């Protein structure tokens, strides 16, 4: 990366951090440093050192967002911690981390946060504690450096990977007469190996990092972008290899965070309305978007489903009105129940994990034959698939739901059979609503006749119905106008409200009053709402 490009990035950052910088920026001065940071040293230094911060120690720092892509040659663990604190040669770092150190120095920062070196990887307590802080770490970072095109820590990000394109190329040194600008250009044939999807966009952990970071400096395959708060991405470098009417530019100029930057919305609303401005509708809408986008991405370890969004959940809770109450449990906000229970497995064939060098490759499919024990059956985190929420502003919720923390009073032995060892005390729900039993034959008939649209969470060989049948747990009705009338501000309701559909969960009975989730169902009604209507008997149950 040439000096003139780095100078442009430095200028952009300095403007952004200035009191009269980019409109919508949010900089309150030097942030609290994370528990550990890398002291990158002077530009000419050959070593870096792990720094343990003191209480209340504040300074600007850079955070790195990148793909691990497998084991790394050097991480912080019980054997290497002392070595890192005494200093290690930068040549011992994998290329992506080495590039991050060099870039941090060039941008004028002293401290860099990288998860592999700042979290003790073989210390369960430290790992759990620091992972819980990651959302805040990226949110507080002065700049997040994004290695968007590197598929692993071994890839680096300061030089384009021309070698993998198998395209003949020739590097040529250039200088501009009368100027101090010198650099290098590469002459090459058509770069057919350029992927329209940057690898980091497919990774689950990177989603939270992009959503919460206040400033991004993104190193893509052949471009450099800078982006902050409410300002669209600024193109710092384009080597001419990509046409910018492409997908990433249709998403508002954002190459890396195609899903939006929720930190922008939260900070702007805080400015406009002060603390405690958030209501449950905003919370539920935001969370449905977050979970839908996050679960489309890949995780090396599926059990990271809940930790991978913990930082986003914590950030949302900070803005919630204190009058609302509630908590965040197993991937849902308790004050948004039963709405956040109305999720289902998505029709998306798999996660966004495109193979190397294939522009039009299909996502790799997910085959899940049993539900994970990492979360309760009612939580979206209990499946590995992408998920969708089926909710609407005209939905009314007919169930009362409360969370039971601790052991169930109903059929504890039965619950233990479906939960992993040590998870019997996992949160359960107590739900009061209508419940309707359907035999195996009735359930199959409901689905084949189109009376019920049921999407089962885990479906092997085309069926997931127990021999004793299933139950429909009714949670919501959609009561919307029969007609809409045009107006200058958009369509407005016209006519009486009617029930368009009911929806809820397909559940299995484990014992008296104790149930587990199997899937999602929806019953659509035609012109006659009462035609062949399915209804149940009000009951109070517990859902594990």
Q: What this model shows, in words?
A:
- By secondary structure, the protein is of the alpha+beta class.
- 23% of the residues lie in helices and 27% in strands.
- It contains 13 helices and 23 strands.
- A nine-stranded mixed beta sheet has the order 4-2-1-5-3-6-9-10-11, with helices on both faces.
- A hairpin with a 2-residue loop joins strand 21 (492-511) and strand 22 (514-524).
- Helix 6 (134-140) crosses helix 7 (204-212) and helix 7 runs parallel beside helix 11.
- The longest helix is centred in the first third of the chain and has 15 residues, at 3-17.
- The radius of gyration is 26 Å and the shape is elongated.
- The protein starts with a helix and ends with a strand.
- The model is unreliable at 162-166, 191-195, 240-259 and 350-361 (pLDDT under 50).
The residue fraction in helices comes out at 10-25%
Average per-residue pLDDT, rounded, comes to 80
Radius of gyration: 26 Å
Secondary structure: number of strands: 23
Q: How far is the N terminus from the C terminus?
A: 54 Å
User: What is the percentage of strand-forming residues?
Assistant: 25-35%
Count of DSSP-assigned helices: 13
Question: How does the major sheet shape up?
Answer: 9 strands, mixed
Keywords:
alpha+beta; 5-stranded mixed β-barrel; 23% helix; 27% strand
């Amino acid at each position: 990366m040439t000096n003139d490009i780095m100078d442009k990035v430095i200028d952009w950052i300095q403007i952004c951090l200035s009191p009269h910088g980019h409109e919508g920026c949010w900089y309150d001065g030097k942030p609290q440093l994370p528990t550990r940071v890398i002291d990158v040293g002077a530009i000419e230094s050959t070593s870096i050192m792990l720094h343990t911060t003191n209480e209340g120690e504040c300074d600007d720092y850079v955070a790195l967002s990148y793909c691990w892509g497998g084991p790394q040659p050097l991480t912080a663990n019980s054997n290497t911690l002392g070595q890192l604190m005494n200093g290690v040669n930068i040549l011992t770092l994998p290329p992506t981390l080495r590039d991050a150190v060099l870039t941090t120095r060039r941008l004028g920062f002293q401290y860099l946060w990288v998860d592999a070196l700042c979290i003790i990887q073989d210390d369960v307590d430290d790992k759990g504690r620091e992972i819980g802080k990651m959302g805040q770490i990226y949110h507080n970072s002065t700049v997040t450096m994004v290695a968007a095109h590197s598929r692993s820590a071994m890839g680096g990000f300061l030089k384009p990977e021309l070698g993998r394109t198998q395209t003949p190329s020739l590097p040529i040194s250039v200088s501009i007469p009368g100027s101090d600008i010198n650099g290098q250009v590469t002459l090459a044939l058509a770069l057919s190996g350029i992927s329209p999807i940057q690898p980091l966009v497919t990774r689950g952990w990177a989603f939270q990092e992009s959503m919460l970071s206040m400033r991004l400096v993104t190193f893509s395959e052949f471009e450099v972008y800078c982006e902050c708060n409410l300002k669209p991405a600024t193109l710092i470098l384009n080597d001419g290899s990509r046409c910018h009417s492409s997908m990433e530019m249709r998403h508002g100029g954002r190459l890396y965070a195609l899903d939006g930057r929720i930190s922008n919305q939260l900070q702007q609303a805080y400015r406009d309305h002060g603390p405690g401005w958030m209501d449950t509708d905003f919370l539920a809408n935001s969370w449905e978007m977050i979970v839908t986008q996050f679960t489309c991405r890949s995780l090396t370890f599926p059990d990271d489903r809940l930790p991978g969004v913990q930082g986003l959940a914590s950030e949302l809770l900070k803005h919630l009105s204190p009058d609302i109450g509630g908590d965040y449990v197993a991937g849902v906000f308790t004050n948004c129940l039963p709405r956040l229970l109305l999720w289902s497995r998505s029709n998306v064939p798999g996660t966004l994990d495109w193979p190397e060098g294939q522009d039009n490759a299909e996502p790799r499919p997910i085959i899940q034959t049993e539900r994970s024990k990492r979360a309760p059956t009612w939580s979206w985190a209990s499946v590995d698939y992408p998920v969708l929420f089926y909710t609407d502003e005209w939905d009314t919720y007919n169930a009362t739901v409360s969370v039971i923390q601790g052991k169930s009073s109903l059929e504890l032995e039965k619950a233990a059979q479906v939960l992993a060892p040590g998870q019997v005390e996992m949160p359960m729900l107590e739900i009061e609503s209508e419940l309707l039993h359907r035999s195996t034959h009735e359930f199959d008939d409901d689905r084949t006749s189109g009376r019920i649209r049921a999407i089962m969470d885990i479906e092997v060989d085309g069926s997931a119905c127990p021999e004793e049948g299933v139950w429909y747990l009714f949670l919501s009705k959609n009561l919307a106008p029969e007609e809409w009338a045009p107006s200058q501000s958009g369509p407005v309701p016209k006519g009486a409200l009617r029930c368009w559909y009911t929806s809820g969960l397909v559940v299995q009975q484990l014992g008296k009053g104790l149930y587990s989730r199997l899937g999602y169902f929806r019953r659509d009604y035609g012109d006659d709402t009462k035609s062949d209507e399915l209804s149940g008997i009000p009951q109070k149950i517990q859902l594990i």
